[in-house]
Design goal:
mainly alpha; 186 residues; 2 domains; Four Helix Bundle (Hemerythrin (Met), subunit A); 7 helices
Length: 186
């Protein structure tokens, strides 16, 4: 499947399932480990993902269902947001709500796909690094996320987004190259 063969709702479903597996693999004692994102623990990283999703739907006047806090139950906090976001994306009337975004006029589904789904890949890797779990990324997700990363141009280097590209060896795999491009020492 190419990146145009699936809808934003299906891409979110697939990547959210992968992200859920990463969350479920975290040993309880590892939630407060430092993450590759400066100043954030694994728990902070998940909080960021959840907050980003909650904030995103507000631009079109929607809200995600509430759930427990990340401090109380990280997996349940994520599940509440994931399921609520999926319900919105599965409803074309909501997914196609338009607004004026950073790159011009767009709709919620397109933004979730290009931004939040991208975050699920990248921050899924960050979470795995922080918690000592499996950091592998499916090849299709690496290809797709690499396309998104390069399409963002200089915006990827804005303050608070990604740091400068890190060096990698000539024989580095595509996932390592992607993470290095995004300022992560892979």
């Amino acid at each position: 499947m190419t990146s145009t063969d699936i809808s934003p709702a299906q891409r979110y479903r697939n990547l959210a399932a992968n992200f859920t597996q990463r969350i479920d693999a975290v040993p309880e004692q590892n939630w407060d480990n430092d993450s590759p994102c400066d100043g954030w623990t694994a728990r902070d990283l998940l909080r960021h993902v959840i907050d980003s999703e909650r904030d995103m739907v507000k631009v079109v006047g929607l809200e995600l269902a509430s759930g427990p806090s990340v401090d109380e139950n990280p997996a349940a906090a994520w599940a509440a947001v994931r399921d609520s976001m999926q319900a919105i994306l599965d409803d074309p009337a909501k997914a196609n709500l338009e607004y004026d975004g950073h790159f011009g006029r767009t709709n919620l589904g397109a933004t979730v796909e290009g931004f939040l789904c991208f975050d699920l890949v990248v921050h899924g890797w960050d979470l795995a690094v922080a918690t000592g779990t499996d950091t592998s990324i499916p090849d299709d997700d690496v290809e797709w996320a690499s396309q998104i990363a390069t399409s963002l141009g200089d915006s990827i280097r804005m303050d608070g987004v990604c740091g400068p590209e890190m060096p990698v060896s000539d024989d580095a795999d595509k996932a390592t190259r992607l993470m290095a491009y995004l300022g992560r020492a892979a």
